[in-house]
Amino acid sequence: MNVASQFASVRWSGREDRIEYVHLAPERHDRPLLVFLHEGLGSVAMWKDFPRALCEAAGCRGLVLSRWGYGLSSPRALHERWPVDFMHHQARAFLPAFFEAIDLDTTKDRPWFYGHSDGGSIALIHAAAQPDRVGGLVVAAPHIFVEDLTVASIEKAKDGYVTTDLRSKLARYHADPDSAFWGWNDVWLDPDFRHWDIRALLPQIRCPVLAIQGYDDEYGTMAQVDGIAQAVPGAELLKLDDCGHAPHRDQPAQLMQGVAGFMRRHLTNKTPEFTGASF
């Protein structure tokens, strides 16, 4: 993204972490803010240029962060295991504390979220917990319950981390790749995690929602986004052909067009000066 990372000291749940983040197009102070929440192995750097490109297409500001344990943020302590409800903690405790640490008043500047995979799940939980502090949601390949397909693919990822060069590839995007990988992998393969399910929370969401899923996603099926559509009134779906778990890499043009159009439709009436980019 060619933007230098900043760091915030975030106190949450009895701990204090150094969190990496970047602002995009802050000069668009009168435009909506889009917060990017990465996947289970993501980081600020791993998004590459996608957040900047999407902010340009949608005509908005951006805020990209590496969650605790990822990127240049504080790593997970050696042998520390994430709890089964780690995404609830991230959504309900970490995000409000992070916004406070960077002086973002979400009562006055209600952010939108682009969440990918685990980041999408965290965005959904956060919007259910803070319905008056979220402007809108775009969730790509989110999880709302645990599928056998997901667990099987995460087991394959574990084998790949041990037997291939996956660790060295992740080291390009994380100061401590073991922190990122094993934090994510261990909790998803915990037998107790099979019972993780956020479907009961979804009716509490009050903002516009766009849920995106690829037909070839190895980590989830259409049941995930169909479940969101059933639970959240007015939720829109974008289903993509020839697309796996990362729509921003597999179908970037269709994705950006769909997201920018969705944001324009829901923001034009509320923000007359918002026009976004044309296609």
Automatic annotation (TrEMBL):
<dbReference type="InterPro" id="IPR000073">
    <property type="entry name" value="AB_hydrolase_1"/>
</dbReference>
<dbReference type="Pfam" id="PF12697">
    <property type="entry name" value="Abhydrolase_6"/>
</dbReference>
<dbReference type="InterPro" id="IPR029058">
    <property type="entry name" value="AB_hydrolase_fold"/>
</dbReference>
<dbReference type="GO" id="GO:0016787">
    <property type="term" value="F:hydrolase activity"/>
</dbReference>
<feature type="domain" description="AB hydrolase-1">
    <location>
        <begin position="34"/>
        <end position="255"/>
    </location>
</feature>
<protein>
    <submittedName>
        <fullName>Alpha/beta hydrolase</fullName>
    </submittedName>
</protein>
<keyword id="KW-0378">Hydrolase</keyword>
